[in-house]
């Protein structure tokens, strides 16, 4: 029997979702607990990977079990999980449905604040830049849906069979006070560090260190920038995962980081 788990996690204390040697991961915490509770070895498959300290406001994994439980597993697992991991739903699915390979679209949000704020620092990235050229940044963002090869924005492009990504939307928001930014991007797949590399270059555009034409040249030539300025991980959220047979709204809105949705304005 196969089940999808709809979950979310705050990634600050983890080296990412994926289990790895000598590092704390979300997957290891989940597998260890489920194995103990269900009294059989549980191995889970996530909908993707996240880097160290990256968050997920929506994430899915699936597990296979031999025997069904006869108690409220959702309640019990949430009681036992640490405060920075939550299970929102447990969904029975067909045995051939796959949390990773069946996902047709993923969305990421990256948050920036331009003033020092101790309440945001683990969920948004502080760039102390008071005069970012938001209009130029938005022009650069508007280019992203026009190109499909993101080799220039990949940390290790040679490890992939190809670097084609179909970016379906890319939007830059600013809050009503103008001192917080939110970059949102959706695609069928993402490459290693892709979103954070894009954000790093967008910040250069905002600081007037890189022109919009120079930004576009990376998309045209597919040449890796000489300097790979990767944006910090704590501002990045995997925020939506879509399946052809499963369309579930996100459980957590971004009021969780102190910003009501209606205060984000499209640039």
General description of the model:
With 267 residues, this protein is of the alpha+beta class. It folds into two domains: 2-93, Pseudouridine synthase I, catalytic domain, N-terminal subdomain (Alpha-Beta Plaits); 105-245, Alpha-Beta Plaits, CATH 3.30.70.660. 20% of the residues lie in helices and 25% in strands. It is built from five helices and ten strands. It has helices at residues 26-38, 73-80, 134-142, 194-206, 212-221; strands at residues 2-9, 44-46, 55-64, 85-93, 105-113, 125-126, 167-175, 180-187, 236-242, 264-266. Strands 1, 2, 3, 4, 5, 6, 7, 8, 9 and 10 form a ten-stranded mixed sheet that branches. A hairpin with a 4-residue loop joins strand 7 (167-175) and strand 8 (180-187). Helix 3 (134-142) crosses helix 4 and helix 3 runs parallel beside helix 5 (212-221). The radius of gyration is 19 Å and the shape is globular. It starts with a strand and ends with a strand. 35% of the residues are buried.
Give me the count of strands: 10
User: Could you report the average pLDDT, rounded to the nearest whole number?
Assistant: 93
Query: Structural class, from helix and strand content?
Result: alpha+beta
CATH topology of the largest domain: Alpha-Beta Plaits
Query: What is the tally of helical segments?
Result: 5
Beginning-to-end CA distance, first to last residue? 46 Å
The CATH top-level class label of the largest domain: Alpha Beta
- Proportion in helices: 10-25%
Largest sheet, in brief, is: 10 strands, mixed
Can you identify the CATH superfamily of the largest domain? Pseudouridine synthase I, catalytic domain, C-terminal subdomain
Element string (H = helix, E = strand): EHEEHEEEHEEHHEE
Radius of gyration (Å): 19 Å
Strand content: 25-35%
Low-confidence stretches: none
Total discrete domains: 2
CATH architecture of the largest domain: 2-Layer Sandwich
Shape: globular
């Amino acid at each position: 029997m196969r089940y999808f788990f709809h979950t979310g996690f705050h990634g600050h204390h983890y080296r990412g979702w994926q289990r790895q040697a000598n590092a704390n991961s979300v997957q290891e915490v989940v597998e260890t607990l489920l194995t103990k509770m269900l009294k059989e070895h549980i191995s889970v498959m996530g909908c993707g990977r996240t880097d160290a300290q990256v968050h997920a406001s929506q994430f899915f994994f699936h597990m296979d079990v031999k025997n069904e439980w006869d108690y409220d597993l959702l309640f019990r697992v949430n009681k036992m999980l640490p405060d920075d991991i939550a299970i929102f739903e447990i969904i029975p699915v067909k045995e051939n449905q796959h949390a990773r390979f069946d996902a047709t679209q993923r969305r990421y949000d990256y948050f920036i604040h331009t003033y020092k704020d101790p309440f945001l620092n683990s969920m948004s990235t502080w760039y102390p830049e008071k005069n970012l050229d938001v209009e130029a940044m938005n022009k650069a963002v508007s280019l992203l849906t026009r190109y499909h090869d993101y080799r220039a924005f990949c940390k290790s492009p040679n490890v992939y069979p190809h670097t084609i990504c179909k970016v379906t939307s890319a939007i830059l928001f600013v809050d009503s006070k103008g001192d917080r930014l939110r970059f949102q991007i959706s695609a069928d797949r993402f490459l290693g560090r892709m979103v954070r590399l894009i954000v790093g270059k967008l910040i250069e555009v905002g600081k007037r260190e890189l022109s919009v034409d120079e930004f576009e040249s990376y998309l045209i030539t597919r040449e890796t920038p000489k300097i790979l300025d990767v944006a910090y991980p704590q501002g990045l959220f995997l925020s939506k995962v879509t399946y052809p047979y499963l369309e579930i709204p996100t459980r957590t809105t971004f009021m969780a980081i102190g910003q009501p949705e209606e205060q984000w304005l499209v640039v």
